[in-house]
Amino acid sequence: MQQLREYKRFWFVIVLGAIALWLQFVNHQAGWAQILVTVLGVFLALLMFIDMVKTLRSGKFGVDLLAITAVIATLAVSEYWAALIVLLMLTGGDALEDFAARRANSELQELLNNSPQTAHRAVGDDIADVAINEVVVGDRLLVRPGEVMPVDGTLLTGPTTVNEASLTGEARPIDKQVGETVMSGSVNGEASIYLRADQTADNSQYQNIVRLVKQAESQPAKFVRMADRYAVPFTLLAYVIAGIAWGFSGDPVRFAEVLVVASPCPLILAAPIALISGMSRASRNGIIVKTGTTLEKLAQVKTFAFDKTGTITQGKLVVDQIVPVTAISQADLLQLAASAEQHSGHVLAQSLVAASTEKLLPAADVNETTAQGVQANIDGQTIRAGKAEFVTDKPVDKADKTAVYVSAAGIYQGYVSFSDKLRPEAKDTMADLHRLGVHNLVMISGDRQPIAKQIAAEVGIDQVHAECLPADKINVLAELPADQRPVAMVGDGINDAPSLATADVGIAMGAHGATAASESADAVVLKDDLTRVSAARDIAQWTMRIARQAVLIGIVICTVLMVIASFGVIPAIIGAVFQEVVDTVTILYALRARTDR
After folding, report:
1. Percentage with pLDDT > 90 across the chain
2. Where are the transmembrane segments (predicted)?
3. Which of 220, 262, 325, 520 would be 238's cystine partner, CB 3.0–4.6 Å?
C-alpha cells in the first residue's frame, strides 16, 4: 500500500504538471497554470507534513521538513515552476525508494500450509477425522506412517521413529518409546501409533513457531538509515544559510532561492539508487535482498549467527566411520550392514546403501523392527543391523554420534557411524567474514553439544549454542550484548523462521530450504553455496561506501550552490535546474554500486 501511494503521488505530479505546461505554453493561461501548480504544491506539502509528523513520532528523522519549506517558499514568491520541479524530484525519489524497499508478499504462508489441519480422533474402535482446533487435551489420536503429529502429546503405543527436522533443524531420526512425548510438527516414521493429546493445537510447538515469527515481525529492530543521519545537520545548514541571506538582503525571494538549491536531492535520490544498484549486483550473484535497508544493516553487522544443519553442513547424514571390532574388514562390515538394510526405507539405510562400494548381497527372511533395526539372512548367516541392544545382548562401546551396529551369527562385529557432512566452502566463508570485519561468529544448533562444538572448531566459529529449539534460538539472539550488534542470522529450515525474523538481518539458504524461512528472511541465497553469505556482506559494504560518497558529493555541491545563491545570483528556476544537474552527478556516481570493485 505504501509503495502504491508513492507511485500515485508521482504520477499525480506528472499529469498535473503536464496540464499546467499545456495551460501556460499552449493555451497561454499563465494564471490558471500557477493556480494549478500552487494547489498541487500545497496539497502535497500538506501530505508530506502529515507523513513527517508520523516519522518524527516513530523516533526517526527525515528530510521532509526542508523539502516542504522549499515547496512552500517557492510558491509564496510565485516561483511555481521551480516548485513543480522540486515536487517532481521529491515524489520521484519517494517512489524510487519504495521500489527499492520491496517486501515479501506472504510472510507465513508456508508455515500455515504445512501446519496440521486435521487429526484422527479415536473413540474406542471408531476413528473420526476432526479439525485440528477441535482437539482437546486428553483426546486419543491416531497418527499414521508419514503423517505430521497434530499436537504435542504422549505416545500410547510404540515404539516409533520421528523426524523433528521442522522443529530442531536436525535430520537424524529420533526414536520414541511408549510414554515419551512428541511435538507437533514432527513427522511420524513407518509405524502407526496412538498418542494422548497433552496440548491443544494453539498451545503446541508448531503453532508456537508461527507465533514467534509473527511476534518478531511485529517488533522490528530500530534502525537509523544513513540518509536520516545526514538529514538533521544538512537541514540546519540550509536554514542557517537561507536565513542569513534573507536577513542581510531583506528579500524573501533570496530565502526561496537558497532552499531550492538546498532541496535534499542527494539524500532522497543518491542513497536509494545506490541501494537499488547494490541489490541488482547481489541478484546477479544469486542473492535476493528484499529491501535497501537490509543492505545498510548488513554492512554494519558485527555478529553472524548460523544454524548448523543445512547451513554449515549439507543436511544429509553420510557414513563417517566404519569401526570393526573383529577381524572383519571395514568394506565387509559396511557391505553386511548395507545388504541387510537395502530394503528398508529408513534414512540411515539409504545412507548405508549409498556409501557401500561393494556389491550388495542378497538378503532373505528380512524382518524390520520399528525403531530397533533389521534382521536378515545373508549367505546363511543371521545378520542384524540397528541399535546396539537390538544386535547383541552384551555391552558394547557405543559411538558418540548416530550409528548402526552390526552382528553376524550372534557375534557383534562393529558399527558404522554417521555425520552431517560439512559444506566444503564453510571454512572459507567464515574466514572471509572475519576478513570483512565480522569478529563474532556464532553457531546455534538443535544438535548435541559435542557434535556442534566439533563442527564449529572445524570451520572457525567463535561461539556455540547447542540443543536449541526455535524459542531458544531467539533467546540467544536477544541476549547478545550491544557491542555485538547488529546481528545477522543464517538458516534454511522452518525451525529457523522465527530467528531469521528476529535478527537484524535474516538470511535464508533458499536453494533447498523451506519457503517459510525464505519469506521470513530479509535476504535469500538462491544458490546452494554458503560463500554467497560473505559475498552479500562484501556487496553491502561496497554499496554503502558508494552511497555515502554519493551523498557527500551531493551535499558538498549543494552547499556551494547555497552559498552562491545567498548572494542572489541564481534565480529560483535556474536553481531548480542546477538541482537536476546535482541529481545527475549523484545518480551517476551511485550507479557505481552495480559494478564489482
Report:
1. 21
2. 7-25, 31-49, 230-249, 255-276, 551-578
3. 262
Amino acid at residue number 346: H
List, in order, residues 6 or more apart from 56 with CB less than 8 Å away: none
Strands 505-509 vs 487-491: parallel, antiparallel or unpaired: parallel
Q: First vs last Cα of the chain: how many Å apart?
A: 36
Give me the pLDDT at residue 538, please: 94
φ/ψ bin of 460: left (φ > 0), alpha (ψ from -120 to 50), beta (otherwise): left
Mean pLDDT value of segment 306-333: 87
Q: Which of 499, 492, 490 is nearest to 513 (CA)?
A: 492
Residue 72 has, within 13 A of its CA and on its CB side, a CA count of 13
Cα 547 from Cα 274, distance rounded (Å)? 5
Three-state SS string across 432-496, please? HHHHCCCCEEEEECCCCHHHHHHHHHHHCCCEEECCCCHHHHHHHHHCCCHHHCCEEEEECCHHH
Copy the grid coordinates of residue 249: 538582503
Contacts of 53 (CB under 8 A, 6+ apart): none
pLDDT tens for each residue of 198-232: 888 877 766 666 665 555 445 444 445 666 677 77
477 touches 484 (CB < 8 A):
no
Quickly list DSSP for 346-399: -HHHHHHHHH--SPPPP-EEEEEETTTEEEEEETTEEEEEESHHHH-SS-----
DSSP summary character for residue 423: P
Name the CA radius of gyration of the chain, rounded: 32
Q: Which residues of 50-134 form beta strands (DSSP E)? A: 118-123, 126-131
User: Which residues have a Cβ under 8 Å from the Cβ of 323 and sit 6 or more positions away?
Assistant: 399, 414, 415, 416, 417
DSSP state of 148: B
289 class by beta-carbon count within 10 Å (0-12 exposed, 13-18 middle, 19+ buried) = buried
pLDDT at 334 over 50: yes
pTM across the whole model? 0.64
**Spatial distance between the Cα atoms of 335 and 307, rounded to a whole number of angstroms:** 34
Omega prior to 264 cis, within 30 of 0? no
